[in-house]
Design a protein that fits this description.
With about 280 residues, the chain is of the alpha+beta class. The protein folds into three domains: about 5-50, Uridine Diphospho-n-acetylenolpyruvylglucosamine Reductase, domain 2, CATH 3.30.43; about 55-170, Uridine Diphospho-n-acetylenolpyruvylglucosamine Reductase, domain 3 (2-Layer Sandwich); about 175-280, CO dehydrogenase flavoprotein, C-terminal domain (Enolase-like, domain 1, 2-Layer Sandwich), CATH 3.30.390. The protein is about 35% helix and about 25% strand. The protein has helices spanning about 10-20, 35-40, 75-80, 85-90, 90-95, 100-105, 110-115, 125-130, 145-155, 225-230, 235-245, 260-280, and strands at about 5, 25-30, 45-50, 60, 70, 135-140, 140-145, 160-170, 175-185, 190-200, 205-215, 220. α2 links the parallel β2 (about 25-30) and β3 (about 45-50). It starts with a strand and ends with a helix. The structure holds flavin-adenine dinucleotide. Flavin-adenine dinucleotide binds near residues 33, 109, 111, 123 and 189.
Length: about 280
């Protein structure tokens, strides 16, 4: 039988103090990833710090500068069903809707998903394409890191830092966006998932951001295709031609589920589909 401590703070200040005082502590958000080691008795001696009662970590709110802030303890299900996110950040809502199954989405949280930093997780792709920032709090104060930096450097900071929220900057006027995914049939995560944001002015592409998850060892911005599309006519032919190009600089992952060639092929196909959807549905 596992033996571990448990504490359920109500404020951010209390949470940071507990983490500082207990180097053996471990945060619990939705508990999806933390429950497994408990079952296998690998958390003996730990202090579990449950974030569920910290109300400052919840909610989806518009900021005065037009950006939208999503609290770290917001469930992935709440992101999928948020009217605000579905209207203004559909790529994020679509990705949330495709995470696992209903039970997973009800428990799993935005902060837990980011901190777990699984290379096949869905949400990193829209966070990169939306140019989101991740807000942290710790004993050195409060600060933000752009998603591109966070996922490139690969996560974990000092023990007493927690993810507080994600800030989504207002997308470019009339930009279309989409997320498409090829599911791992057993794990449900993304063998490959692609998020796009596409803005046009006078028939020309003036903003394009494409981000890929699942296909490499970490999620990445697909700069090659962004460069190939920027300032080109906003047509299906342009998208098709760019998506069929070869991008040798990309470093795809291969494993027993999908070879590097297969993931490379999926990336090209899903990129084209996501761009077509973004083109067809400007905001
Ligand atoms: C059956 C199944 C299918 C799944 N399918 C998918 C899928 O298709 N796509 C997908 O993207 N994901 C999928 N997931 C992962 C799911 O989204 C996870 O639950 C999620 O990654 C972890 O979220 P959580 O809130 O449960 O975190 P927890 O398990 O509570 O925590 C995860 C880690 O993050 C740390 N942590 C939690 N919150 C914070 C915080 N605020 N600040 C700092 N550290 C924190 C914890 O200490 C722990 O190390 C699946 C999971 C399961 C069980």
């Amino acid at each position: 039988m596992s033996s571990f401590g448990y504490i359920s703070p109500q404020t951010l200040e209390e949470t940071i103090a507990v983490l500082g005082d207990h180097p053996e502590s471990r945060l619990v958000a939705g508990g999806n990833d933390v429950l497994l080691p408990i079952n296998h008795s690998r958390l003996i001696g730990s202090l579990l710090v449950d974030l569920r009662r910290v109300s400052a970590l919840r909610g989806i709110e518009r900021q005065t500068d037009g950006s939208v802030r999503v609290g770290a303890m917001t469930s992935i299900g709440a992101i999928a069903s948020s009217a605000l996110l579905r209207a203004e950040f559909p790529a994020l809502a679509q990705a949330a809707e495709l995470v696992g199954d209903a039970q997973v989405r009800n428990r799993a949280t935005l902060g837990g998903s980011i901190a777990a930093n699984d290379p096949e997780a869905d949400l990193p792709a829209p966070l990169l394409a939306l140019d989101a920032s991740i807000e942290f709090l710790g004993s050195r104060g409060r600060w933000r890191v752009r998603a591109s930096e966070f996922f490139r450097e690969s996560a974990a900071g000092p023990h007493d830092e927690i993810i507080v929220s994600v800030v989504l900057p207002r997308p470019p006027e009339h930009a279309g966006m989409a997320y498409v995914k090829f599911k791992h049939p057993a794990r449900l995560y993304a063998l490959c998932g692609v998020a796009t944001v596409l803005g046009t002015v006078n028939g020309q592409i003036d903003t394009v951001r494409v981000a890929v998850t699942g296909a490499a060892n970490r999620p990445f911005r697909f700069k090659g295709i962004e460069d190939a599309l920027l300032n080109r006519p906003a047509t299906a032919q342009t998208v098709n031609a760019a998506s069929s190009s070869v991008f040798p600089e990309l470093d795809f992952r291969g494993d027993i589920f999908a070879s590097t060639e297969y993931r490379s092929h999926l990336t090209a196909v899903l990129t084209r589909r996501a761009l077509e959807q973004a083109l067809a549905h400007p905001a």
